[in-house]
């Protein structure tokens, strides 16, 4: 399939203009030299240009279009206290003029910092889930709004449903066009993978265009087997929405699950070392939860010979740096 025909499928969903794309595609010469393996590049989706940026802006362009089409009068989503997705949803809702309710995990912290501070500045109403699991708490909040006569639009974890994932099918097309214009191709794309929508969209887009790069997800919180299964389900839903005549099997998703460390959001030596290495070689900031872990994973995969001299590897920077401001000196090496 050609870029143009895939783009016209995507355009038929009328995504709203939220940020600024294409995001920069840049070489990382000093990091490449420091790691001594493949030629490394970065796709700067930390610079998507809305509410301090990040990968969720691309998904929200499609999700907000859907919310407006359904005449929603309030947008809801959920995540951890320092959720980048929640912050970008608050920004997107503000931008299209809808109120936003966020159901965040745990209890209110003593001070508003990092993403949670930004949620508040962006005008979101925050409800704390306390000990309750997040998805039932989100559903209960939506029910309450319906009973009060509202039309809530509920966005799942990470914006990862078929509608949101279209944003990353479009992102893959954007990358391919950018790379073609520079006369380069990538052997692999490495990305932090958590709710799975980013990786699923990139993998579907690559298959649609027959782009040969391996899309490797560094799992943030899940073992590979159930995660691959989950992404295959997301791929099937997205393929159906876009009218594609193929989908992806679980085995077609490359997942590295060796970097789960102490669990979601627990900063260990891997993340600490990666954050300062990238900062000191390239002046580039990665985050403590997602991109720091993914960059640590990439470093390790290079050491293990998964990516080698002569290959060109793209690190897809998904954002998250605002969470740095909810950390203290524990990040320093
Ligand atoms: C949400 C997020 C991810 C993971 O993206 P998914 O589509 O949920 O897999 C990676 N990095 C950052 C900074 C994020 O906020």
What do you see in this structure?
Helices cover 44% and strands 14% of the residues. It is of the alpha/beta class and 333 residues long. The longest helix is centred in the middle third of the chain and has 21 residues, at 162-182. The chain is globular. It contains eleven helices and ten strands. Helix 3 crosses helix 4, helix 4 packs parallel to helix 5 (114-121) and helix 10 crosses helix 11. The protein folds into two domains: 3-54 and 161-331, Rossmann fold (3-Layer(aba) Sandwich), CATH 3.40.50.1100; 56-158, Rossmann fold. Strand 3 (74-79), helix 4 and strand 4 form a beta-alpha-beta unit. The chain has helices at 3-11, 29-35, 56-69, 84-96, 114-121, 134-147, 162-182, 197-209, 224-242, 269-282, 291-303; strands at 25-27, 39-44, 74-79, 100-104, 125-128, 152-154, 188-193, 214-219, 254-256, 312-317. Strands 1-2-10-7-8-9 form a six-stranded mixed sheet, sandwiched between helices. The structure holds pyridoxal-5'-phosphate (PLP). Pyridoxal-5'-phosphate (PLP) binds at residues 54-55, 84-85, 158, 160, 192-199, 287, 290-291, 318-320.
């Amino acid at each position: 399939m050609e870029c143009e025909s895939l783009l016209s499928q995507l355009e038929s969903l009328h995504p709203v203009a939220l940020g600024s794309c294409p995001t920069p595609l840049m070489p990382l010469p000093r990091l490449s030299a420091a790691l001594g393996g493949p030629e490394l590049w970065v796709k700067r989706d930390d610079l998507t240009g809305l509410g301090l940026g990040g990968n969720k802006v691309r998904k929200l362009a499609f999700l907000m279009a859907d919310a407006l089409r359904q005449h929603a009068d309030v947008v809801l989503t959920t995540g951890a206290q320092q959720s980048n997705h929640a912050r970008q949803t608050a920004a997107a809702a503000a931008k299209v003029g809808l109120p936003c309710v966020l159901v965040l995990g745990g209890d209110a912290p003593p001070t508003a910092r990092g993403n949670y501070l930004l949620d508040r500045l962006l005008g979101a109403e925050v409800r704390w889930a306390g000990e309750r699991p997040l998805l039932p708490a989100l559903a209960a909040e939506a029910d309450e709004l319906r009973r009060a006569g509202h039309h809530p639009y509920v966005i799942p974890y990470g914006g990862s449903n078929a509608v949101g994932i279209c944003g990353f099918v479009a992102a893959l097309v954007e990358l391919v066009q950018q790379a073609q214009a520079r006369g380069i191709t990538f052997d692999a794309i490495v990305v932090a993978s958590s709710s799975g929508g980013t990786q699923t969209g990139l993998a579907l887009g690559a298959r649609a265009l027959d782009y040969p790069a391996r899309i490797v997800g560094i799992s943030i919180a899940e073992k590979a087997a159930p995660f691959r299964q989950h992404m295959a389900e997301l791929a099937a839903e997205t393929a159906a929405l876009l009218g594609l005549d193929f989908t992806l099997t679980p085995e077609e998703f490359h997942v590295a699950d060796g970097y789960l460390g102490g669990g979601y959001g627990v900063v260990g030596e891997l993340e600490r070392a990666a954050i300062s290495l990238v900062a000191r070689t390239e002046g580039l900031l990665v985050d403590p939860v997602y991109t720091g872990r993914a960059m640590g994973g990439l470093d390790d995969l290079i050491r293990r010979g998964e990516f080698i001299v002569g290959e060109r590897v793209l690190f897809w920077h998904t954002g998250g740096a605002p969470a740095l401001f909810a950390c203290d000196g524990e990040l320093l090496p």
